[in-house]
Amino acid sequence: MMTPLLSCPLCGIGNPADYHRDARRDYWQCRTCELVFVPPDQRLAPDDELAVYDQHQNSPHDSGYRRFLSRLFTPLRERLMPGARGLDFGAGPGPTLSVMFEEAGHPMAIYDPFYAPDISVLRDTYDFITATEVVEHLFEPGRELERLAACLPSAGWLGLMTKRVTSREAFADWHYILDPTHVCFFSESTFHWLGEHLGMRVEFPASDVVLLQKLSQ
Question: Which domain of life is it from (predicted)?
Fold first, then answer.
């Protein structure tokens, strides 16, 4: 099969490799940053995407959801100064991680393109930014992650939660690719590329969590 005229949505490089194909979608892998991605013509339309998100019933009153978010919350909080100010990017219809940080003494802003679309918050500066189960949904992860990194000072933290690609064999049977709103899939190698690209140090405190700290300029 010929490689289509696609550019990686993370690094912008063309000529991706055929990675996987199922009955619903094709998946390509960037030869540079190793991101696995769905081609643009196989993404959901905005209304269909929103219909999927509207089915989510996350809430700060759900103890199970709080336990899930603690995989990112706990290691990130341990690295923050008291009173550090944060932004929860992609907060969704039931913002919860921001509530957890506020309860711990950290003032928070939230942004979500569907549920909290005040773009002005992305022109501010924050000590830390979180995005839980967000980056796999981004159509333009390179542009969005560069924008978030620009909102951080030196030593600021970007905390991401997303399940990681481990192998082609595991990918074929992976439940994560069944969600039609998941269009970008990161591996440890992809995050190492991202850290170098953004000038950030990379840590992996859990199998689905990555922390990136902005280095001094």
Answer: Bacteria
* 35 located within any domain: yes
Can you tell me the distance from the alpha carbon of 163 to that of 92, in angstroms, rounded to the nearest whole number? 18
Which portions of the chain are predicted below pLDDT 70?
A: 1-4, 217
Residue 7 forms part of a structural domain:
no
* Segment 79-137, tens digit of pLDDT: 999 999 999 999 999 999 999 999 999 999 999 999 999 999 999 999 999 999 999 99
**108-111 sheet: strands from edge to edge:** 108-111, 86-89, 128-132, 157-161, 209-214, 200-206
Domain count, the chain: 1
Task: Report the C-alpha gap between 163 and 153 in whole angstroms.
Answer: 27
Residue 203 located in a structural domain: yes
Instruction: Tell me which residue range forms the domain holding 98.
Output: 17-214
Contact 159, 72 (CB under 8 A): yes
